[in-house]
Amino acid sequence: MAHESTDAARTLTFEIFRFNPEQPEVEPHLQSFELDETPYMTLFLALNRIREEQDPSLQFDFACRSAVCGSCGMLVNGRPRLACNTLTRDLPDVIRLHPLPAFQLIGDLSVDTGVWFREMHRRVESWVHERAPFDPEAPEERMDDELAQAIYEGERCIECGCCVAGCGVANVNPRFVGAAGMNRIARFMTDPRDARSDEDWFDVVSTEDGVFGCVGLMACHDVCPKGLPLLEVYAYLRRRMLGAGLSRGGSNELLQIEAA
Amino acid sequence: MSASPYDDRVPRDLPDLTARPAVPSARSEALRQLFYELVSGVSGGALALFMWGHMLFVASILTGERGFDWLAEGLEKVYVAQPTVFAIALLFLVQAVMASRKIPAQLHERRKMREIAAQLKQKPSLPANALRLKPHLESMLWLWQVRTGMVILVLGSFHMVLVGIDVLTPLFGERTGIEASSSMARVGAGLWLLYALLLVCVEFHASVGLYRLAVKWGVGSRLSRGTLLTLERVIFVSFLGLGLFTLVVLAGWIDPPLALLLESSP
Ligand code: HEM
Ligand code: SF4
Ligand code: SF4
Ligand code: FES
Predict the structure, then answer these.
(1) Distance (Å, rounded) from C-alpha A207 to C-alpha A204?
(2) What is the mean pLDDT of residues B223-242?
(3) Would residue A213 count as lying in a domain?
(4) Which ligand does the CA of A72 lie closest to?
(5) Based on the number of CB atoms within 10 Å of its own CB, is A52 exposed (0-12), middle (13-18) or buried (19 or more)?
(6) Residue numbers of the domain that contains A236
(7) What is the pLDDT of residues A70-83, one digit of tens each?
(8) Quick one: A79 and A122 in the same domain?
């Protein structure tokens, strides 16, 4: 609690990226705001106060303010983070906020992660492909507890886009599925209810837009606010794809490519 | 039919993957990508392991010219040295071609970074402690891996041409083959500068490359990333240290410290 007294004493300077695509004549710039720090202040609180007290035109997104909805991702002093679970007392006196890169800018700190994620889900076909027509009368199949946990772990992604924004590859290649996409793929790959075989996955995953686009920068893993094991996810996909490529005559085809 | 939870937002006629006929071109493209990835990883890994062996050979100069010549001649007599030079040159080329497939994207990225940086320039004046941007470690390491790779391409090619001439022609020194006397003469005459640069680049590139390889394939998933990173640093520092020391001896600035070993056992 030693923090609180110092918290209250600080005056924070916010350097906030401003640009409204509807007003292209105003060049993108950083605007500063000053704010006295209050105990346990989050960036969510700070931004709302700035909008209420200083500039009602400031655009940013929030919904849940508890790290669940994934709408408040932004660059905080250069790092992708959730504004709602970032305490100002963990930050220096000057806090610089930018919108997440790699996504379409809506204005100021607000970006459209939805378009990116929708396109990713469409390509990954990120829903269970059932083996047989759904029979509502049949009892549900049993699942191993450990497996259920693993699938649940993959479902914890809140689609905040931090991993995408922090990834050098995703910033350059808009088709790259990114860590969030790889996490999605791994989630369905491990699901026994999903009918897709490794062979089916191979064409989508063993590509430059899939797992082999990733050069192992590890930023995704380091910035994910939900602490998803993204490093393990992509190593797992690589090994699965190696297996899929080598199995069932794949190794012969591989040799043909070598010869060609 | 599988229902998409996103049906309200995307067209309804989404292809059903289970019902879709295999697309041969997509499959061979996927196989090609897997193949490239394997070739670039295996060639990089093999080169890194070779560089460790290479370090031990060169370090034989620490026992004096006799030790170095004895080893070099031995390897040449049984025709190990000559084919190795060419095999490594081949691997080197393969690695350069395969690994640099990732680089063009990098150039785009730099342009992008420059754009962002240009935007930031219009900032109002900032207090000194404002820019507390922490670059992301592994991302920076990757950038430097690309940069050192380019230096290695140039200096390493030059080095391999020299050694190729050494093992095939009597042009340098008294006989066909690698000799301590001619190596020391040219290193002392100024080549040490190039070699020192090449050494730093290779040791950095190889240790970071192995680290990344381990993380990428999850080889090290039993070891924590911190442990792997420490391992990477230990490898980098030890090989760099040994390499620089060897270079100093090779340049003739200090006497071989282990020469005693060979003198006492003729
Ligand atoms: C000929 C000049 C070279 C160039 C231009 C080059 C370039 C590169 C680049 C750009 C990468 C990153 C590729 C990626 O992330 O997928 C890389 C990876 C790597 N390089 Fe090199 N390199 C060269 C020589 C070498 C040498 C001599 C060694 C060994 C000492 C080596 C060992 C490695 C390793 C182990 C990796 C990691 C492979 C991976 O992550 O898949 N490279 N190289
Ligand atoms: S994986 Fe993590 S960083 Fe990426 S979108 Fe999901 S919650 Fe966000
Ligand atoms: S490891 Fe790096 S390249 Fe791969 S998805 Fe994560 S941030 Fe991107
Ligand atoms: S407001 Fe929902 S995650 Fe931050």
Answers:
(1) 6
(2) 88
(3) yes
(4) 4
(5) exposed
(6) 112-132+140-259
(7) 999 999 988 899 99
(8) no
